[in-house]
Amino acid sequence: MEELKQRLEEIKSRLDKIKAKLNPEKLAAEAAQLEKKSSQPDFWKDDQAAQKNMRRLADLRSRLEEIDVLDKQIGDAQAALDLEIPQEFEDKLRQLDESLINLEQRSFFSGRYDSNDIYLSVHSGQGGTEAMDWAAMLLRMYQRYADRRGWNWELIDEQAGEEAGIKSATLFIKGPNAYGYLKHEKGTHRLVRQSPFNANALRQTSFASVLVLPVIEDAKEISVKPEDIEFTAFRSSGHGGQNVNKVSTAVRLRHIPSGLIVTCQSQRQQEQNRKIAMEILAAKLWEIEQEKQKAHLQEIKGQFTPPSWGTQIRSYVLHPYKLAKDLRTQVESGKPFDVLDGRLDEFLNAEIRQL
What we know:
By secondary structure, the chain is α+β, with helices and mostly antiparallel strands. The chain has helices at residues 2-22, 24-38, 47-82, 86-107, 129-149, 178-182, 242-246, 270-301, 336-340, 345-354; strands at residues 118-124, 152-160, 166-174, 187-194, 203-214, 229-234, 250-255, 260-264, 312-317, 323-326, 332-333.
């Protein structure tokens, strides 16, 4: 029984840490405010904002309910311990541990935009056709990951390679805590394999970069002046029906002060493509501000390093041996083809827990 008592104390300690991080009182106050707001007559006037508020309210209620259930389960387990019923106590400990794992996972997503949907972009690096093929493999990896989680994704923009693969592509991924799960994928990904484009099958190293941006629905802190935007319409080269390729529905936005260029060609209507392109532009400008703040803080601390195009975060080796290894967490898998098929949970969970 002593070992079981110790396990109960560990579980209590884990729940206390989660409570300290989530702050149930603050969550309850926010839920009460949203409930009051939802009862207002004009609440559904802005349908998009109302749906966002209702999703947030449902999430808050769910978290608070999980904490209440865990408190009750701990009380039940303590009662079984006091009555010295070992089997019942052990069963309740098992239930507690399973419930805690789920809540612990969600508690890591406390960032401002962690619950948001994302725009995920893949860009081929140096290496010509090899790199473009590698970029296409990475794009598929994230599509498969989204499929495995039951998330929805849409190809927003794609620039095909001359011979194979892609120069760049952008996905819109919609799912619970999509940004929280995938924001750490930003960086450079390295592939080592026998070249399928070389008659001698020589070993080739290729690079591609990944950028992950949250969808910022209420971007009040992102000021984009209309006069700073250069707009161009063009005919789409992608899928979408006859209208897409006959009418200039695709859009290209250039943010003059920063030089940022965003294109979107996935929708049939030009206005829809423009709206998506503006969302991506706002998210990119937000990302630039975040990087500036990080660099400033590092400079103050005396640890400033010049910003780079991207840092290598993970290697995928298919030849002469098979290994996928994350260079930040040191997590590795001897099944890189499984990883490339979207089985990323081990890598993502390690990175989430480390920060």
